[in-house]
Specification:
CATH architecture: 3-Layer(aba) Sandwich
Number of domains: 1
CATH class: Alpha Beta
Strand content: 15-25%
CATH topology: Glutaredoxin
Largest sheet: 4 strands, mixed
Number of strands: 6
Helix content: 25-40%
Order of helices and strands: EHEHEEEEHH
Shape: globular
Structural class: alpha+beta
Length: 117
């Protein structure tokens, strides 16, 4: 599993988001390293398909549902949750993303082989 936290220097929600991610990983018992990716400029934002600071991706997918086709954005990111705007994504989105399985992870560990008699 790969967890990335994308941000720009000086983002006021960067550290609270780091703390949220660390707390969720600990509580869920998931021992994965979080890769911090600083996005220094708009060009890098476009290359990385950055959706604003802070952004969290699990296995390359943004944790906010429905954002996969949004254009890159270099600026502060806000999240709308239950009619309220916040700069830190809700913990539940991260929990949900962490528990999703890729097709490879869902495949059976053992294949059955047919014996012709």
């Amino acid at each position: 599993m790969k967890v990335e936290l994308l941000y720009f220097e000086g983002c006021p929600n960067h550290i609270p988001t780091v703390e949220m991610v660390e707390g969720v990983l600990k509580r869920e018992g998931i021992g994965v390293e979080v890769t911090a990716i600083e996005v220094p400029d708009i060009e890098t934002a476009q290359i990385l398909r950055f959706l604003g600071s802070p952004s969290i991706r699990v296995n390359g997918v943004d944790i906010e549902p429905g954002r996969e086709n949004d254009p890159p954005f270099f600026g502060c990111r806000t999240y709308s949750v239950s009619g309220r705007t916040t700069g830190v994504p809700p913990e539940q989105w991260l929990v949900d993303a962490l528990h999703r399985r890729s097709p490879k992870e869902n495949s059976s560990c053992c294949s059955t082989q047919r014996k012709d008699t």
